[in-house]
Write a structure and sequence with these properties.
It is a single chain. The protein has 145 residues and is an alpha+beta fold. The chain has two domains: 42 residues, Arc Repressor Mutant, subunit A (Orthogonal Bundle); 72 residues, Lrp/AsnC effector binding domain/regulation of amino acid metabolism (RAM) domain (Alpha-Beta Plaits). A four-stranded antiparallel beta sheet has the order 2-3-1-4, covered by helices on one side. Strand 2 and strand 3 form a beta hairpin.
């Protein structure tokens, strides 16, 4: 990956709907060269997809929590991911070191909605227990580049 690839990636991270002309301008390429670079980055797996970033406030999902998950038995990360994908309130999930097996970031409308999402997590056969902390205020939120 070179400086031009990094500029292409920065441009589409800032706006996934950037035109090839806009990407080319940012990276110092023609629109057709920008398209080829972008296609190559997608084919190589450096760019895994394009998505809309939804403001949770627009959905009125103003309650956030981080939940430590303790697994029941010894599920694989794929098995745990499969269970967590069923819960739309899960916006991020990672396996972690330490006493817990995974850390889950949830967003919900309110405390009652959050509690329902956590109960659905606990109903999974691969999850043995949870410990939750509720976000009071977000201090820093940086886009990933």
């Amino acid at each position: 990956m070179d400086r031009i690839d990094e500029e292409v990636i920065r441009c589409v991270v800032a706006n996934a709907r950037s035109t090839y002309a806009e990407i080319g301008k940012a990276a110092g390429l023609s629109p057709s060269a920008a398209k080829r670079r972008l296609d190559r980055l997608v084919a190589a797996g450096a760019i895994r997809g394009f998505t809309a970033v939804i403001d949770p406030q627009a959905l009125a999902w103003r309650t956030e929590a981080y939940v430590q998950v303790h697994c029941a038995g010894n599920p694989t990360p794929d098995e745990l991911r499969h269970e967590l994908e069923k819960i739309p309130e899960v916006i991020e999930a990672c396996t972690i070191s330490g006493a817990a097996d995974a850390m889950i970031h949830l967003q919900a409308e309110d405390i009652a909605h959050l509690e329902q999402a956590i109960q659905r997590m606990r109903a999974s056969a691969v999850i043995g227990g949870t410990e939750s902390v509720i976000v009071l205020s977000r201090l820093i939120s940086r886009p990933r580049t």
